[in-house]
Design goal:
Keywords: Chemotaxis, Cytoplasm, Hydrolase, Phosphoprotein
Largest sheet: 7 strands, parallel
CATH architecture of the largest domain: 3-Layer(aba) Sandwich
Structural class: alpha/beta
Pfam family, one: Response_reg
Number of domains: 2
GO molecular function, one term: protein-glutamine glutaminase activity
CATH topology of the largest domain: Rossmann fold
Domain CheB-type methylesterase: 164-353
CATH class of the largest domain: Alpha Beta
Protein name: Protein-glutamate methylesterase/protein-glutamine glutaminase
Shape: elongated
């Protein structure tokens, strides 16, 4: 049986980039670039005309930029959108905004169009595109406050002192999922929270700064040698592995390392962090695995479960890509599988005496 062809609309104001991206996408015979658009306005019109299966969207364009276009498309004709971003601080900020508005993933243009073709990178690009077009769900999530918030009021006297850290791991669809969860944590929670989000180097600092503006807790990118503090949300820096060590005073600190191994696909890797956390925190840890493709987190959760850590997985109904939570759940490691809207509530139920 012949493979189904997926139609793609390539949106970019640069003729050179349109040609490059089109050539890359059509390396996979399952894709057909049905047309191109030079700005957000053209993109909206051509989406109405062609109804493509996938859109690649530039960020900075004349007449209508990619962020405005994503917002309008997701309101009027929602479909899978992948952002193509520049590797700059401004590019990181705008790309994160696009992900919050409903774009499903992003790639760095500079990496995709290097003079020396990196076949592994191109294969990963195409794999992620095909996974998105075949498996991703368009996020249409609203906060669900049907639970009794009075039952979940947190204070230092009713937090379970046996819990010393909360670790949240996510990939595709993660920034939007985190936006649903992190702002719900209140200032009087006395447990550090570590977030591991798969991203290219340079983007996690912008992610931390963005969440710091909208969260009740302070949010920052984790630093090497930094002692974990209560009341902080830490974002694991991209391009490195985040593990734990004991300081000279006997306190737990971050150790940020550049670990190169063919067996480790992601920087940060959820597995690497959980494997380290399991030995330091044992049963004093809550782990939540959110939306994402692949199986990062499975082996780390397997080890953490041997120490009786509590594990929460996001259910299929709200995952953009039901990959990472699925393998943990199907391995029998999840203590609770709930929708995104209930993740915070479930963490609180594990915390409150």
């Amino acid at each position: 049986m012949e493979n189904k062809k997926y139609n793609v609309l390539v949106v970019d104001d640069s003729s050179f980039m349109r040609k490059c991206i089109t050539a890359l996408i059509q390396k996979d015979q399952r894709f057909n670039v049905i047309d191109i658009a030079r700005n957000g306005l053209e993109a909206i019109e051509k989406i109405k005309k062609y109804k493509p299966d996938l859109v690649t969207m530039d960020v900075e364009m004349p007449e209508m930029d990619g962020i405005t276009a994503v917002e309008l498309i997701m309101k009027e004709n929602p479909l899978p959108i992948v952002m193509l971003s520049n590797h700059t601080e401004e590019g990181a900020i705008t790309t994160l905004r696009a992900l919050e508005l409903g774009a499903l993933d992003f790639f760095l243009k500079s990496e995709l169009v290097k003079e020396e073709t990196n076949e592994e990178l191109i294969n990963d690009f195409l794999y992620r595109l095909i996974t998105i077009v075949e498996n991703a769900k368009i996020p249409t999530i609203e906060k669900d406050n049907t639970y009794n918030e009075e039952e979940l009021i947190i204070s230092k006297k009713n937090i379970d002192n046996l819990i010393e850290i909360i670790i949240i791991g996510c990939s595709t669809g993660g920034p939007a999922a985190l936006q649903n969860i992190l702002p719900q944590f209140q200032k009087d929670i006395n447990i550090p929270i570590l977030v591991l989000q798969h991203m290219p180097p340079g983007f996690t600092k912008s992610l931390a700064e963005r969440f710091d503006k909208i969260c009740n807790l302070s949010v920052k990118e984790a630093e090497d040698g930094e002692i974990l503090k209560e009341g902080y949300i830490y974002i694991a820096p991209s391009g490195y592995q985040t593990i734990f060590k004991k300081s000279l005073e006997g306190k737990i600190a971050f150790k940020i390392e550049d670990i190169n191994s063919e067996e480790i696909l992601y920087k940060p890797s959820i597995n690497v962090t959980l494997n380290s956390a399991a030995f330091h925190f044992k049963d004093k840890m809550i782990i939540s695995i959110l939306t994402g493709m692949g199986n990062d987190g499975l082996e780390g959760c397997r080890l953490a479960k041997k120490f009786n850590a509590r594990i929460i997985t996001e259910s299929e109904e709200t995952c953009v890509v039901y990959g990472m939570p699925k393998v943990v759940y199907e391995a029998g490691l999840s203590d609770a599988q709930v929708s995104l809207q209930k993740i915070y509530q479930q963490i609180m139920q594990f915390l409150v005496k």
